[in-house]
Task: inverse folding
């Protein structure tokens, strides 16, 4: 913000014509203020990041100058012509109003009409301090808003392993080794514990899935966008779409009502502000013609506002709302970005359940864990083998709910890492995560769920109980699969650590490739492909003029699950030679047997046709 402070004998102001739509409502009569400090001010674009801070700084500077010139009368005069990068008018007015309120504690304050073309006459006193200028920004207040983040960094955690018998073993890292529990049978859990306790979020070197996402022509970096915003090529979009369809279908079956809410919200919305201040460094802000907006980093905002405006009875609980956010945005730090593991724009399945009380919340949470475990298993991960359970909890919740936590671990069927806090700091008192440990021994949370005890009050979400009294529900936050991009990361990392890497059959962009031994069999190969395609199986034909060895080799590099070499024998015979990438063996079977084999594994999953032309010679080369 820039200001010019003029110690004046008087200023006379006459509004002439409205300059903006949201101008003050005033009579077009002259206003005269005597013996005053006239403060011409102009807010800048940078001030939009923190109007509260700018208003405080404005009031401090004005108070300082007024003290120097010994006056108690202040006139705040909006004068946009001081700057070349003016802020949104709404922000400028907000700053003036807040500064006005702060200054009125010590001064008599008036404001010139905002949003008008004005005529004014002013008589400046002309002494050495009568004309002063200042320039400042929103600095200072950020420190106050980041107190929550600083407190989080200093929050003391105690780490434990909780086993299936209910034994809680305290653990810690000493000399780069973890002590307090025998991890000999749980090596991945040990890696997960080290990752969590050390809080080592940066990958160190490139994760293996990045090479695979490029090699398989699934996903590419987009240099024209902000880092952490990726482009999905046709095959990558196919994989992502199938995952989205599956998660949404399963959420419908669970009983969640699907909604869609805005991508961006008012940065100055009174209800949202307290929630936002926990993530000031992670926000994307957007300037619109009328408002300062932020891009959502979760579906919570829209769903909570929706619930707040709804009439809810105890009979409706647990009430489940679901949204597949394409996209949520978090301005993650550059060093934290790692392919698909950590992004700045991601697709998050977000399901909130509003529960009457803690008893209902715990029952619902256990049910949702079943849903999540089934989800991860059907996606293509070994549950619980490929994942590790992390629990975050307050000490009070642990003391009162040991039986519940033991039920959770028994359902999981192997030990879990527990992070415990002395007191509640976050909006939740309990949270669990299903984590995948990758080829670099880094962990990433897929499924998460938590018991939120604060936001129903913050958003004024209520339900009417049996006695016709209004109460705030507890809120569960479930991402049944985790961010869709992160699921792809886990599947690619798992493939990279496998002997014969392959994607799950239902997600493979091409499930079957037919390789004619020469171009004279291409027509018959396409006829065979017609029959397979009718069975809702993605099949393509390598019709290039290449050796059969080259064709089979390329199919292997593309992780094609099944390859059929087609020649004279196959044309005349009744059985096909089916090469499996997973087993690296060739089995002969009839077309009917082969189709049945694929259907057994994929019939309960979503299906989409090929994302690329069937004949490989017709495909462009993506880079």
Result:
């Amino acid at each position: 913000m820039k200001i010019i402070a003029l110690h004046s004998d008087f200023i006379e102001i006459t509004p002439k014509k409205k300059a903006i739509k949201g101008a003050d409502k005033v009579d077009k009569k002259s206003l005269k203020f005597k013996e005053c400090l006239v403060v011409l001010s102009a807010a800048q674009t940078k001030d939009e990041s923190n109007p509260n801070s700018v208003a405080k700084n404005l009031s401090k500077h004005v108070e300082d100058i007024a003290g120097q010139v010994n006056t108690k009368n202040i006139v705040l005069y909006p004068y946009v012509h001081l700057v070349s990068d003016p802020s949104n008018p709404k922000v400028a007015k907000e700053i003036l109003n807040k500064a006005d309120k702060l200054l009125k504690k010590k001064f008599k304050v008036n404001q010139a009409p905002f949003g008008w073309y004005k005529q004014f006459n002013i008589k400046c006193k002309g002494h050495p301090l009568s004309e002063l200028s200042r320039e400042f920004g929103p600095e200072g207040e950020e420190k106050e808003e980041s107190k929550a983040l600083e407190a989080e960094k200093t929050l003391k955690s105690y780490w434990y392993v909780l086993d299936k018998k209910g034994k809680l073993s305290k653990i810690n890292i000493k000399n780069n080794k973890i002590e307090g529990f025998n991890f000999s049978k749980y090596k991945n859990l040990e890696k997960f514990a080290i990752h969590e306790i050390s809080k080592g979020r940066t990958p160190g070197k490139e994760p293996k899935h990045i090479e695979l996402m490029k090699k398989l022509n699934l996903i590419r970096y987009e240099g024209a966008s902000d880092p952490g915003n990726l482009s999905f090529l046709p095959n990558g979009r196919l994989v992502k779409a199938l995952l989205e369809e599956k998660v949404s279908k399963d959420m419908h079956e669970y009983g969640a009502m699907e909604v869609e809410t805005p991508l961006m919200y008012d940065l100055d919305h009174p209800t949202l502000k307290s929630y936002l201040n926990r993530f000031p460094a992670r926000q994307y802000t957007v300037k619109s013609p009328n408002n300062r907006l932020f891009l959502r980093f979760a579906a919570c905002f829209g769903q909570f506002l929706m619930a707040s405006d709804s009439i809810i009875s105890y009979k409706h609980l647990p009430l489940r709302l679901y949204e597949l956010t394409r996209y949520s945005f978090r301005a993650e730090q550059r060093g934290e970005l790692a392919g698909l593991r950590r992004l700045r724009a991601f697709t998050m399945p977000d399901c909130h359940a509003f529960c009457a009380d803690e008893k209902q919340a715990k029952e619902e949470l256990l049910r949702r864990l079943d849903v999540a475990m089934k989800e991860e298993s059907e996606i293509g991960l070994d549950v619980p083998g490929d994942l590790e359970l992390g629990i975050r909890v307050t000490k009070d919740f642990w003391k009162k709910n040991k039986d519940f936590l033991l039920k959770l671990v028994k359902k999981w069927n192997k030990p879990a890492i527990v992070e415990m806090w002395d007191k509640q700091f976050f909006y939740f008192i309990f949270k669990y995560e299903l984590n995948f440990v990758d080829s670099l021994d880094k962990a990433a949370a897929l499924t998460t769920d938590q018991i939120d005890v604060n936001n129903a009050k913050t958003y004024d979400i209520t339900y009417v109980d049996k006695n016709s009294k209004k109460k705030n529900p507890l809120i569960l936050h479930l991402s049944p699969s985790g961010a869709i991009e992160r699921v792809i990361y886990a599947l690619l990392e798992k493939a990279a650590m496998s002997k014969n890497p392959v994607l799950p059959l239902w997600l493979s962009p091409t499930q079957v490739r037919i390789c004619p031994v020469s171009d004279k069999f291409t027509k018959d190969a396409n006829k065979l492909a017609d029959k397979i395609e009718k069975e809702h199986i993605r099949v393509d034909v390598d019709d290039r003029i290449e050796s059969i060895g080259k064709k089979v080799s390329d199919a292997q590099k593309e992780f094609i699950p099944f390859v059929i070499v087609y020649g004279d024998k196959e044309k005349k015979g009744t059985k096909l030679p089916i090469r499996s990438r997973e087993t690296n063996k060739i089995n002969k079977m009839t077309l009917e047997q082969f189709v049945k084999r694929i259907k057994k594994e994929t019939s309960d999953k979503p299906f989409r046709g090929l994302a690329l032309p069937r004949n490989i010679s017709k495909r462009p080369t993506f880079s």
